[in-house]
Specification:
Blueprint lengths: L9 H6 L12 H14 L3 E4 L4 H14 L2 E3 L9 E3 L13 E3 L4 H4 L8 H12 L7 E9 L8 E7 L2 H10 L4 H10 L3 E6 L20 E5 L4 E5 L4 H4 L2 H17 L2 E3 L1 E7 L5 E7 L6 H5 L9 E6 L3 E5 L5 E4 L4 E5 L9 H6 L5 E3 L2 E2 L5 E2 L31 E5 L13 E2 L2 E5 L9 E3 L3 H9 L2 E3 L11 E3 L12 H10 L10 E5 L18 H12 L5 E4 L2 E4 L15 H6 L3 H16 L7 H19 L1
Parallel strand pairs: 1-5, 3-17, 4-8, 6-7, 7-9, 12-22, 22-26
Antiparallel strand pairs: 2-3, 5-6, 8-9, 10-14, 11-12, 11-13, 14-15, 15-21, 16-20, 17-20, 18-19, 23-26, 24-25, 27-28
Helix pairs in contact: 3-6, 12-17, 16-17
The protein binds oxalic acid (OXD) and manganese (II) ion.
Manganese (II) ion binds next to loops.
């Protein structure tokens, strides 16, 4: 039997009330793994987290004492806190994210690669003594419902109480998870340290180590090693690291899909229920679409998930999806009662805000919440706001349980998907909506997705980058092989698969304004999609797929003007020709890993563009 080093002080209280048998891991695989890391990182103490309210309380009081989080006004935002990160640690670090597959070729051209042995050796030197003077939090977690065949289990070890608290919101952490892991010894080992040992120095509110930050994934052994950052996807290892990068590898090996997708339940005025997924790059309105409030009468929308979907073929041949997460880690700026009232209600209590501004009366504020900033703001760096630059960081976030969402769908264990949306932020060219002609054509549309960059990752904002399936930063293996894996889903019973749609809410007019109102009005596009699924309307062929016939898209009450349809659907011949060349360049990166079906799709697209130019 394994006993963790004797917990002392408040840690004793954390463990109070837990049954003796669940307090300890007994599985030698788990025990040996923990022993090795404790020996290497030398924490002062270790504690296994569970779902007891006391555990949460103790994490909160530790963080308040350290100054990492501060309570918000309980009258205005009950049970909520504001965290301010180190200004050098504010987003996912794609340049420091590595896929350490045994062969470089398997990581592909879109990932950073390091030889796994070398990477581990280098990171071991960083991890040596990294937790000196600190507590190691041991977090047994599951992504997916305990006991479901969909589920993947993990154990994250971290020296950040902020990460531990956030993981308790974002994943399932409880004694059932611990028992399941201990019984089978099957878990994804996920190691995290902020890289700020306390040997001979005091702690700081947001410890981190930006010079030595690495987020490494070992696909063959399905391990995650993260060091130096305490922010979001760099540190909450169940999310991007496990549920996307490692899960995408598992999905390839086992014939399913792990995707960067929201899941929406939609009920039509005829009371028909549809489940739709949507893949959009970071900060392109995924959470808004997941929390859609339909503007058209009779429609209802409920949220199943806002960021990640795992999809498997069911016995009926259809693709069934789950949301493996238990929380939302959403981008705050831009969220308002107008753009996303459901999110605003969701974060009205029991929420941790990070890098938002603080109001004089102890609430939070961010750009877009109201037109004008309130008087007396304290900015995301803790300084009085002078009106220069943003008061909240553009990648400021809220972390909140999905159970706080007023429109949460009750389905947790798999929903059958009728349609998949692929989207991005494009000022021109890509129409409001097009339907893929076939699954293969849909895979083509997913593979050429592109978007203007946002603040969710480091780097310049507003550049167009190809982001196939919105998985560019999240695919754990060669992107060309990933396209092949998508194609292989249609090897049997292609008819039962969902229909695929490319959407773009972001087209701009000559004055730079958005043509489409977006948000709740996106239900109009979903209504057309459902009419297509039910065979109620025909469409018009275009080089990028089938678009609505003028008159089939419900635009009643919108101020679109006589050119509205063209502004939403017209494809400029020159831009199309340029796009063909850009896709050729994009595809060239994948070399002989590019499936031949996609090369054929590109030729067909080229021919359609030529035909349109001539016509
Ligand atoms: C996210 C992201 O945090 O995609 O969800 O960056
Ligand atoms: Mn995301």
């Amino acid at each position: 039997m394994h006993r963790l080093p004797c917990p002392c002080g408040w840690l004793g209280q954390v463990q109070r009330g837990r049954s003796e048998e669940l307090m300890e891991f007994t599985n030698p695989k788990v025990v040996n793994w923990l022993d090795d890391w404790i020996a290497l990182m030398q924490p002062e103490r270790s504690v296994v987290l569970n779902a007891d309210p006391e555990t949460k309380e103790m994490l909160v009081s530790t963080l308040v004492e350290l100054g990492t989080i501060e309570p918000l006004n309980p009258q205005l935002r009950p049970g909520s806190y504001l965290a301010r990160s180190d200004p050098r640690d504010v987003a996912r670090l794609e340049s420091r994210t590595l896929i350490c597959s045994e062969r470089e070729e398997d990581a592909g051209p879109t990932n950073n690669w390091r030889e796994p042995g070398e990477m581990k050796e280098m990171m071991r030197t960083l991890y040596a003594g990294a937790m000196r003077g600190r507590t190691m939090y041991i977090i047994p977690f599951s992504m997916g419902e305990v006991g479901s065949p969909f589920t993947l289990y993990g154990i994250e070890i971290t020296d950040s109480a902020y990460v531990a608290l956030s993981m308790m919101t974002m994943a399932t952490v409880d004694d059932r998870v611990l028992s399941a892991i201990d019984a089978a010894g099957a878990f994804v080992p996920a190691v995290h340290s902020v890289g700020y040992p306390l040997a001979g120095r005091d702690d700081v509110a947001w410890p981190c180590n930006p010079e030595d930050t690495y987020i490494a994934h070992f696909p063959e052994t399905r391990e995650i090693w993260s060091y130096g950052s305490g922010y979001g996807g760099n540190a909450l290892l169940g999310k991007k690291c496990l549920a996307l990068r490692i899960a995408s590898v598992a999905a390839r090996d086992e014939g399913w899909l792990a995707e960067h997708m929201l899941i929406l339940k939609l009920t039509s005025p005829r009371d028909e229920v549809y489940y739709v997924t949507g893949a959009f790059p970071s900060a392109c309105g995924k959470t808004n679409l997941a929390m859609l409030v339909p503007t058209r009468p009779g429609w209802r929308a409920e949220t199943v998930g806002d960021d990640i979907a795992w999809l498997r073929r069911g016995e009926d041949g259809r693709l069934w999806a789950i949301n493996p997460e238990m929380g939302f880690f959403g981008v705050a700026p831009g969220t308002s009662v107008k753009t996303n009232p459901v999110a605003m209600e969701t974060v009205s209590k029991n929420t941790i805000f990070t890098n938002c501004a603080r109001t004089a009366d102890g609430d939070v504020w961010w750009e877009g919440m109201t037109k004008e900033p309130p008087e007396g703001l304290i900015d995301w760096q803790g300084k009085p706001y002078t009106g220069e630059g943003p008061a909240a960081h553009p990648n400021a976030r809220f972390t909140v349980s999905i159970h706080e969402a007023p429109n949460l769908a009750s389905e947790r264990d798999g929903v059958p998907i009728s349609a998949m949306l692929f989207g991005g932020r494009r000022s021109s060219l890509v129409p409001l909506v097009t339907e893929a002609r076939t699954w293969e054509h849909g895979v083509f549309l997913g593979s050429i997705m592109a978007s203007e960059t946002t603040a969710a990752a480091e780097g310049a904002v507003g550049r167009v980058r190809r982001d196939p399936f919105a998985m560019l930063p999240f695919c754990g293996y060669h992107m060309g092989d990933y396209f092949g894996h998508w194609l292989s889903m249609a090897e049997t019973d292609a008819q039962a698969l969902p229909k695929i749609y490319l959407v773009n809410w972001f087209r701009r007019d000559a004055d730079g304004g958005f043509v489409w109102p977006g948000y709740g009005d996106n239900v109009r596009v979903l209504a057309w999609i459902i009419d297509r699924l039910e065979g109620r309307v025909d469409g018009v062929d275009s080089p990028l797929g089938t678009i609505p016939s003028e008159g089939d898209l419900d635009v009643e009450g919108l101020e679109l003007g006589p050119e509205g349809y063209d502004q939403l659907f017209a494809m400029n011949a020159e831009e199309l020709e340029m796009e063909v060349e850009l896709i050729r360049e994009h595809y060239a990166r994948f070399g002989d890993h590019l499936p031949k079906e996609l090369a054929i799709q590109l030729e067909e697209f080229d021919q359609a563009v030529q035909a349109q130019s001539k016509g």
